[in-house]
Amino acid sequence: MINSVILFIRDTLPIFLLVSLLLSQSGIRLLHIAPGILIGLAFAGGWYANLSFLSTIAAGAGLELIKVVILVFGLAMMCLFSKDMINQNRRAYLWATLLLAAITIVNAIHFLIYSIAYWSNEQADMSLIAGSIIGLGISLSVSILLHAIVNSVSYLLPKLIFLCVFCAGQFASITALLEQVDFIDVTTTLWDSSSWIADDSEYGHLLNVLFGYEATPSTAYLAAYLIAVLLPIFSAFVFRKANNTKQHEAPSL
Question: What pTM did the predictor assign?
Answer without folding.
Answer: 0.89
